[in-house]
């Protein structure tokens, strides 16, 4: 039997409520090195299309979080992203700015997926997807988020642009 995304996310949320009981010493902590080895292995196993898989995972989680927290509008969406990324160690949103053309520019530092690498490729697909999903869930409109600079390309921060698609 295949479970819906919604049900899977509810199950994850429920499982984390009692995490101290089942992981009394470790709790919900996982090292960054473990995460990076898992991601690297997935890139090797899944190949070039893995970026869209990570983007979609972030997107689905973002939509779920926006709906489960009843986020409304761009301001609330970014307040949530800032707190969630910092709380989970995903990254630090340093700045987000709505431009006159309706695009949103986002600057992130300390990316969990890219800080410390210099491989000449963008790696923050999950974060881009999460932001797009949060925006969709909070505004009811479709958004695309593209990473334009990445720490894994040698930059000192990551930059994204969010584009409303209707």
TrEMBL record:
InterPro entries: NO_sig/Golgi_transp_ligand-bd, V4R
UniProt protein name: 4-vinyl reductase 4VR domain-containing protein
Domain 4-vinyl reductase 4VR: 103-164
Pfam families named among the record's database cross-references: V4R
PANTHER family linked to this entry: ARSR FAMILY TRANSCRIPTIONAL REGULATOR (PTHR35090:SF2), DNA-DIRECTED RNA POLYMERASE SUBUNIT I (PTHR35090)
UniProt organism field: Methanopyrus kandleri
Alphabetized SUPFAM superfamilies for the sequence: Ligand-binding domain in the NO signalling and Golgi transport
